[in-house]
Amino acid sequence: STNTYTDPDAYEAAIQPAHWKMLVSSRGTFQAELTQIKLPRLWLQRGRESLPRVTCSTVSTERPPFAFLTDPDQPALNHSGVDLPFGELIAVASGSTHHHRTETACNWATLSLTHDELATTAHALIGRDLTAPSVTSRLRPSRPLMLRLITLHETAGRLAKRAAGIPAQTAHALEQAILHALVMCLTEGMP
Q1: Residues whose CB is less than 8 angstroms from the CB of residue 47 and which lie 6 or more positions away in sequence, other chains included
Q2: How far apart are the C-alpha atoms of 140 and 143, rounded to whole Å?
Q3: How far apart are CA 146 and CA 5, in angstroms?
């Protein structure tokens, strides 16, 4: 589903799987769009915000997210003191609290899955379990792998905006492709 917001409080309340507190940091009319897609194993979100903001977020212990920017022309997002430019991925530790700051409008995306799903998916794809990091980590996968993940996530977002939603077979295939791209980004991008 895709929803638009002019109230920052309503927008922050809708973001999952985290508890967000947000402060818009410049004057103007706040506008945001949030697309959320819940597939059987994978949850996806895409956010677009018209104004710079500062947030404090505490993430889920059950579904720690992976986050990235979706617009190559936007400035880096500051994630707890570390700049996250387009093309990099943040693997967020379970239950952790973070501060984010943007300098301009921002376009971002997250995806999350349970610890068990991450381990099972990785084992099936690469022959070993992967676990979410115990500390938040910035990953730098190769450009082709990261662009594949970004493109697949964008495709899911476009399909979710259609009135009919994502057909079941398409959703299954898309989920498989996104999980594959994520695992490849995680295994290549780990320090």
Answers
A1: 15, 32, 33, 34, 35, 106, 107, 108, 109
A2: 8
A3: 29
Distance CA 17, CA 81 (A): 22
Residue 181 has pLDDT above 90, yes or no: yes
CA nearest to 79, candidates 65, 95, 90, 66: 90
Q: Which DSSP letter does residue 130 get? A: -
Quick one: tokens of 39? 């597939």
Claim: this prediction has a pTM higher than 0.70 = yes
Taking only the tens place, the pLDDT of each residue in 76-91 is 999 999 999 999 999 9
What does the block give as tokens for 153?
Answer: 């996530």
* Amino acid (1-letter code) at residue 112: S
- Phi and psi angles of residue 145, each rounded to the nearest 5 degrees, phi first: -65, -45
Q: Which of 150, 160, 23 is nearest to 99 (CA)?
A: 23
Cα–Cα distance measured from residue 81 to residue 181, given in angstroms and rounded to the nearest whole number: 27
For the cut 70, the answer to whether the pLDDT of residue 190 exceeds it is: no
Reported as a single tens digit per residue, the pLDDT across 121-171 is: 999 999 888 887 888 999 999 999 999 999 999 999 998 888 667 888 989
Sequence-distant (≥ 6) Cβ neighbours of residue 35 within 8 angstroms:
1, 2, 44, 45, 46, 47, 157, 160, 161
Contact residues for 127 (Cβ-Cβ < 8 A; gap 6+): none
